[in-house]
Amino acid sequence: MPADVRPSRPRGRGEPRDQPRRTRTRRRTGTPTPSGARKPTRARPHTRTPSYRRLFHIPGTRAFALGAFLARLPMGMFSVSAILMIAPARDSYALAGAVVATGLAATALVAPLTARLVDRHGQARVAVPATALALVGGLALVACVHADAPAWTLFVSYAATATAPNTGGMARARWAHLLKDDPAALHTANSFEQAVDELCFMVGPVLAAFLCTSLFPEAGTLVGGLVLLTGVLVLAAQRATEPPPSGRTAVKSPVRAPGVPSLLAVFLAMGAVFGSLEVVTIAHADAHGEASAAGLVLGLQAAGSCAAGLAFGAIRVAGPADRRFPLCLAAMAALMTLPWLTASSTGSLLPLAGALLVAGMATAPTMVTAMSLIQERTPEGQLNEGMTLAVTGLLGGIAGGSALGGWMVDHGPGPATTGFAVPVAAATLALVLALAAPRRRPAVFRPSH
Predict the structure, then answer these.
(1) Coil, strand or helix: which one is 38?
(2) Which residues does residue 32 pair with via DSSP β-bridges, in sequence order?
(3) Across-strand partners of 38?
(4) Choosing a second label site near 154 at 20 to 30 A (CA), which of 78, 184, 402, 446?
(5) What are phi and psi of 164, to 5 degrees?
(6) φ, ψ at 362 (rounded to 5°)
C-alpha cells in the first residue's frame, strides 16, 4: 500500500487531523482585525412588509392609540363649538371669529413650551395638569358667555385653553420610541397617526355642530372637554410605552437644528393650502345657495386624505424621506388644480366634492413624509417640541391662508372661483421652498481610535 494512501478511520479525541477538512463558516458579527477586535457592522433593516396588525401586537399600543384618538377628537370640535356658542349669544360672528383667532395665536406661543416640558419631565407628569388648566379655560368661557360677561373675558378664557398638550405629537413620540430600530414599521405608525388626524378633523366639526344645535349651544364645548380629559388620562396611564424624560439639557431649541427652519417654512406654506381651501370652498358653496353642504364637501377632502394615509402606510417606501418629500409636494400642487378647474367650469357642488376627494389624497402622504423628516432632524429628547413646532407652523399657515383666501373671494380679480388659485399657489410655494432648502449630508461613520 502506498505510504500516502491510508484507510480512513475514526479520529480519536485530541488527535490531530491527518488531512485538512472543509471548514465550516460561522456567522460572525463583524470582520476580524489584527488585534482580535471586531469592527461593528451596520444592522440590517427589517424587510417585512408593513402591517397595521403587526403594529398593534406590541403590548400597550392599542391602549395608548385609543387614548390619543379620544384626546385628539375635540381638537376638531372646539373652534366650531366656540363659534356656535358665542355668535348667537352676542349676535356677532366677527367677535366669535376673533376669539377663535386669539386662541390659535395663543396656541402657537404656548404649545411649544408645553411640549418642551413634556420632553423634560415626561408625558404623564405634564399632560394631565396642562389639560386640567385648558379645561378651566373652557369652563370659564362657557360661564362668561352664559353670564353675558364683557367681551374681553371671552378672549382671556379661550386663550387659556392653549395649554392643551399636542396629543398627536405625544402618540408619534411613543411610536418613535418603540420602533426606533424598525423604520418600515415607524412609517406605518406615522401613516396611521396621520389618518387619525384626518378622521378627527372630519368627525369633530360635524359632532360639534350636532351637539350645539340639537342640545344647547354650550354642549359642544362641555362634551369636547370631557372627551379630551378622558383621552389624556387613558394616554397618561400607559406608562410602559411612554418615552423616558430627557431632563434639563444644554441642547438648544429644535428651531436651530440643521434642516428644521427650512422644513418649518414648508409647513407654513402647507398650512396656507388648508386654510385657504376651507374658506374658498365655503364661500363657493354659499354663493350657489348650498352653504349647508359646505361641511360635507370639506369632509370628503379629509376622507380622501384619511384613505390615502392608510394606504400609504401599508406599502414599503423606497429611498430617504428628503427625496420623497418634493415628489409628494409636487403631487399636492398638481392635484390642487382640480378644485380650481372644477369650480371654474361648473357651478354644481357635486363635481367639486369629487375633485376635493381626489385632491385630498395627496395630503396624508405629504404630511407623513414631513413628520418623518421632523423626527429625523429633531435632536434626541426634544421630539415632542419639534413636532409641536411643526403643528404651530401649520396653524400659522392656516391663519394666513384663511385671510388670503377670504380676500381673494371678496376683492380678487375675476370671478370668486379665482380664490381656488390660492391653494395651488401655496402648494407650489411649499414645493419651491423644499427644493431650495440646502441638502443635509448624511452622517459618516468614523471608528474611534
Answers:
(1) strand
(2) 38
(3) 32
(4) 402
(5) -55, 130
(6) -90, -15
Task: Please give the distance of CA 5 from its chain centroid, rounded to a whole number.
Answer: 75
Position with higher pLDDT, 6 vs 410: 410
If you compute the radius of gyration of the chain from its CA atoms, what whole number of angstroms results? 27
Mean pLDDT of the chain: 78
Residues 6+ apart with CB under 8 A from 247: 120, 381
Cell numbers representing residue 437 in the block: 432648502
Cell of 102: 386669539
Confidence of residue 1 (pLDDT cuts 50, 70, 90): very low
Sequence letter at residue 261: P
User: b/e string for 21-35 if b means 16 or more Cβ within 10 A?
Assistant: eeeeeeeeeeeeeee
Q: For the purposes of burial, counting CB atoms within 10 Å of the CB of 175, is it exposed (0-12), middle (13-18) or buried (19 or more)? A: buried
> Quick one: which of 259, 234, 260, 253 has its CA closest to 120?
253
Residue 229 pLDDT > 70, yes or no? yes
Going along the chain from its start, the domains and CATH numbers come out as 50-245 (1.20.1250.20), 253-439 (1.20.1250.20)
Contact predicate 75/201, CB 8 Å: yes
Phi, psi of 217 (to 5 degrees): -60, -30
Residues 131/179/323/364 CA torsion (nearest 10 deg): -50
d(CA 301, CA 198): 9
Number of residues that this document lists for the chain: 449
The Cα–Cα gap between 433 and 440 comes to 15
Distance in angstroms (rounded) separating the CA atoms of residues 266 and 263: 5
* Distance (Å, whole) CA 316 – CA 45: 12
